[in-house]
């Protein structure tokens, strides 16, 4: 499963449906090499050894080109350049291939629906983030304030600085007595 002494590129291709795709395999023994296709869902692999109406294989001195003229969804898979006759020898190709992903065309409505869904997910994630960050902080602050007040270290803010014994209650207020001032009886405030 090691990569052989060859260079294959690109390593990953994502292209739109109906577009051409090119793979190149550089090898000193190009006449002994061949292209294979493996699918993700299956252990099977297929040899690609001759030109068809959908793809072409071109051999040169030091490389083998593989071209798919118009890719379709069934072209999804991994394309590997490896030794010839692997199927006859019941061996698997190496895992250093090129993965092809065929992307579909979407209409305007599908794109708008996807964008609306993405926006909704972002808003929901933002709300959940605020909740999951603020609730623990508020609970922590509540526990800290309860701990300080219950330990008696901080006096209540309504009676701060006042002793309970020094505060006058309603019962301690004397009733109003109608008394005449001394100076109205005969004394003047300026007289001694």
UniProtKB/TrEMBL annotation:
Q: Show the InterPro entries listed in the entry.
A: Ig-like_dom_sf, Ig-like_fold, Ig_I-set, Ig_sub
Q: Domain named Immunoglobulin: which ranges?
A: 10-103
Q: Where are the transmembrane segments?
A: 120-141
Q: Does the keyword GTP-binding apply?
A: no
**Localized where?**
Cell membrane
Q: Which GO terms describe its cellular component?
A: B cell receptor complex; external side of plasma membrane
General function of this protein: Required in cooperation with CD79A for initiation of the signal transduction cascade activated by the B-cell antigen receptor complex (BCR) which leads to internalization of the complex, trafficking to late endosomes and antigen presentation. Enhances phosphorylation of CD79A, possibly by recruiting kinases which phosphorylate CD79A or by recruiting proteins which bind to CD79A and protect it from dephosphorylation.
Q: How does it assemble?
A: Heterodimer of alpha and beta chains; disulfide-linked. Part of the B-cell antigen receptor complex where the alpha/beta chain heterodimer is non-covalently associated with an antigen-specific membrane-bound surface immunoglobulin of two heavy chains and two light chains. Interacts with LYN.
The molecule here is called: B-cell antigen receptor complex-associated protein beta chain
Species the sequence originates in: Halcyon senegalensis
Q: Which gene encodes it?
A: Cd79b
